[in-house]
Amino acid sequence: MSIKTDPKTGLKVFNTRSELAKNLTSSGGFSVNTDASAKILPDAPIGAVFNAQEQAKYLTQKEARTGGAELVALQAKFAGYLEDIDSGVPVEREALTDSCEILVIGAGLAALVLWYKLKKAGYQDVRFCEKGGDVGGTWYWNRYPGIACDVEAYTYLPLLDEMESIPSMKFASGFEIMEHCQRIAEKTGFYEKTLFHTTVQETTWNEAGKNWTVKTDRGDAMSAKFVVMANGILTTPRLAKIKGQDRFEGDAFHTARWRYDVDLTGKRVGVIGTGATGVQVIPEVAKVAKELYVFQRTPSTVDVRDQRETTDEEKDRWSQQPGWAAERRARFAQIQDGRAAMKASDDFLSGKVDHYKELKVHSSKLAPEKRLQKQLDSNFRIMESIRARVDAIVEDPATAEALKPYYQFGCKRPTFHDEFLPTFNLPHVTLVDTAPKGVEGVNETGIQHDGKQYDLDVIIYATGYEFMATSTFNMVKGRHGETLLDKWSKDGTQSYLGIHSEGFPNLFIVMGPQSGGYGFNLMDGIYTQTDHILWTLNTMKDNAYGLVDVTPDAEAAYVKHCADMDVATLPLRDCLSYYNGYGAANPGSLGYYGGPERYNKVKHEAELSKEGFVFERQAETTATH
Questions:
Q1: Structure pTM?
Q2: Pairing of β 507-509 and β 251-254
Q3: What is the chain's percent helix, strand, coil content, to nearest 5?
Q4: pLDDT tens, residue by residue, 83-138
Q5: Secondary structure of 342-401 as H, E, C letters
Q6: How far apart are CA 274 and CA 280, in angstroms?
């Protein structure tokens, strides 16, 4: 049976996991590269400074790309880009019209961590709705060859201690991450709490009942006292609109729905995009394709990866060291330099040394303007080294020049790879520079650009994902009769701690806009924000509160704080990327730029004072602060 009732607890038990989803495609992520020359980052030129001439180069590239690509609606011919192609037929089940205490939307890493904490704290009346056929979130949907996490696995993967698990590689493949998610779900009873192949379509606040009504595409109309949105921030494929792309007669797909039924061996393949996904997938496609054309609008920063296997000594030591992963994650969180974080010094993270880089001592405190200039100069030297690496590896001067990025390090998602740049030295691989506006057109047989025709058998869109897409919030209607999307469309994102939004009581958002608690490891944010959710639930339980909302003043003050932090650090992120809505986002409306230490302080003070919260007891209509 797909749904039954536990006679001891009276709670529903689900069995809706897709059978086909259990069988992962066998593929790898970052491989260990033995070519030492591919793992060298040249020194920046002596005396390199971010002067007016260099600033002009950055500005030129930014202005030329202003106006971002128009997106294609993923429907009609493009509807398949959203289909779950890695799953079997949804398990048949009855529509549910019952109630639960906590309903969570999503079954990715945040949901798994939250469930572990909820279960440990004694919360059992919890259920999860997931549109896919299994757990994993972004690691369920993304299964392209070469997929791996850019943050070291020993720090990124949650609950390693609790699952008695040790990753096989420092930078684990997406397939190993997916298997870890499945391991958590199996060991914690998560599968029995989850309705798979279930997409939430409406979430509406019921003022009379002080609860949420959650409707799904499976005919469910469930009631929940609390709703947690753990949908993820990079899950919906982003497809740029290109003239004529619906005319192509070959195979075409997005990397977020990799078609392993399409054999690329001996084929003429075009890959559009050289962002974080493209950098990982292009070397893998080059290994099998007859001809590979890479269409690039904006180059990525491609730093050294230096992948390695987990050593036997590490496996033995960690298996006898309770809490090793939590300790390592805590040390990682101390790193305030983006490149240092991604390099992930083993000596520092294992506690062999006290600092992740050499400390500089200034004779006097730097003025804010001087400190900012030093940061810009340091950032510029990193970028000079990255550009020098391109020259050192890529043999064709024109190709090398096109692969050089001119913007601040970290203002676009940085990438790390030791095979991407050498790929462009292969005779069957061609870089097509489409700067500044992107590919001009697609026809029946391939891609047209700059007067040339590129005949192709397969087109692969490595064009990224919607970042914190507010369209995912258009289904949530609060106590004032408006949706989250309606509210946020007026004046930008309006939240408190990035977790609550006034007028949407008993609703929690995990890893959404304006949320923080993390620097370079999203897992820190997941732990921080799920801790806050647990604090809120426990506070309500201990005081017999039935409802929690936030005050308009507290929300407005937090929104201003987010904007101030964004503006203060803007010179370090002055380019067009999904981090700033390609230049269209209001300051502070997407990411939180105050840093994890400041966010954690703000969150702690909010929990300590409780002044920003409005709690109501079960039978009260007046607020209790």
A1: 0.94
A2: unpaired
A3: 35, 15, 45
A4: 888 888 999 999 999 999 999 999 999 999 999 999 999 999 999 999 999 999 99
A5: HHCCHHHHCCCCCCCCCCCCCCCCCCHHHHHHHHHHHHHHHHHHHHHHHHHHCCCHHHHH
A6: 9
